[in-house]
Design brief:
- With 321 residues, this protein is of the alpha+beta class.
- The chain has helices at 41-50, 63-71, 126-139, 158-161, 188-200, 232-244, 282-296, 304-315, and strands at 76-79, 93-96, 105-107, 113-116, 144-146, 171-172, 204-206, 213-217, 222-226, 255-262, 265-272, 317-319.
- The strands form 2 sheets. A 6-stranded mixed beta sheet has the order 5-3-4-2-1-6, with helices on one face. The chain has a 6-stranded mixed beta sheet with strand order 7-8-9-11-10-12.
Length: 321
């Protein structure tokens, strides 16, 4: 009996991830594995696009204000400095909470760029999506709105494009007139969008004495929403200590009612009487910041009363992102 010949397979060429072209999900993967693309290299590509980045604005100047403008503030703008300065023909880059007709970005006739912050994004990394939109806007023709798209998984993030030493100083507006230099001559579509946006905007004021605290007015009561950078567990412990001691309010008739969780940061919320304006809570907020700093520095175990207070705050926490 003849000796059985050993069968050998030709060695498939090995490609690096960077060399794998994107093909249809059901087509054979170009790496030569024999599997469909969606079950091979397509799986990693999809995961990279959809994986949620918990703190997309981490490392940017003003991270807490980025979160506030993304989730809480209806009308605000911020001048954005770019690494290496502005490209030729671009007079300025301005972040805006919302743009007319929900455009992701707009290159104005004068070459300036408006970048919208509160739009839906295609991936789990808001920073990468915004950076991709910004790059499109910088290259767009003047007078052109920019549409959103799925950013490349290996594309730059805002942290790669913005000057890390630049200031982040939000300007809160009472309406959206900043959309157009001359509102009286706006197109009917933009004028209608402007009217709808102004009617829906909640009056909001940024406090000047503490960072990332925003007062807002609603029909029944006012609120203070304060985005804080401290680790969540440590912050909730500190808030519980103050709450159990009766020192968590911002004055008579005010009450700490809970918190939001947004983009990896915690946002305590106070109810305020309808007659309490932003200027009325400036001093109480500064005094609360001092009490909070002392509570954050305490590492003693929580007392039973403090644990109950913490449980109440945790039960009233809402996740926005």
């Amino acid at each position: 009996m003849a000796k059985k010949r050993v069968q050998t397979k030709a060695k498939r060429p090995q490609l690096s991830d960077a060399e794998i072209p994107v093909v249809g999900a059901r087509e054979p993967c170009p790496c030569g594995s024999g599997r469909r693309y969606k079950a091979c290299h397509g799986r990693a590509a999809a995961h990279a696009v959809t994986e949620l980045v918990q703190r997309p604005f981490e490392g940017l100047p003003g991270e807490c204000d980025w979160v506030a403008l993304r989730e809480l503030v209806p009308a605000a703008t911020v001048e954005l400095p770019l690494k290496g300065g502005l490209p030729e023909g671009v007079s300025s880059v301005t972040l805006a909470t919302v743009l007319p007709m929900a455009w992701p970005a707009l290159r104005r006739d004068d070459g300036s760029v408006l970048l919208g912050l509160q739009n839906d994004t295609a991936s789990g990394d808001i920073s990468r999506d915004l950076a991709d939109t910004l790059q499109q806007a910088l290259a767009a023709q003047p007078g052109t709105p920019v549409q959103g798209r799925r950013a490349p998984a290996d594309g730059p993030r805002l942290q790669d494009l913005l000057d890390p030493e630049g200031a982040f100083e939000p300007v809160v507006h009472s309406g959206f007139e900043f959309w157009v230099p001359d509102a009286e001559n706006a197109t009917p579509e933009v004028a209608a969008s402007l009217e709808r946006a102004n009617a829906a905007a909640i009056p909001t004021v940024k406090l000047t004495g503490v960072d990332a605290a925003y007062w807002c007015e609603t029909p029944d009561k006012n609120h203070l929403r304060w985005v804080m950078p401290h680790p969540e567990e440590q912050l909730l412990d500190a808030l519980a200590r103050l709450h159990a001691a009766g020192r968590s309010s911002l004055g008579e008739g005010t009450r700490l009612v809970g918190s939001f969780r947004a983009h990896g940061l915690t946002v305590p919320v106070w109810d305020l009487p309808s007659g309490v304006g932003a200027e009325d809570v400036e001093k109480p907020a500064a005094e609360f910041a001092e009490r909070l700093a002392a509570a954050l520095a305490t590492d003693e175990p929580l007392t039973p009363d403090e644990r109950r207070a913490r449980g109440g705050l945790t039960n009233r926490q809402v996740t926005l992102s």
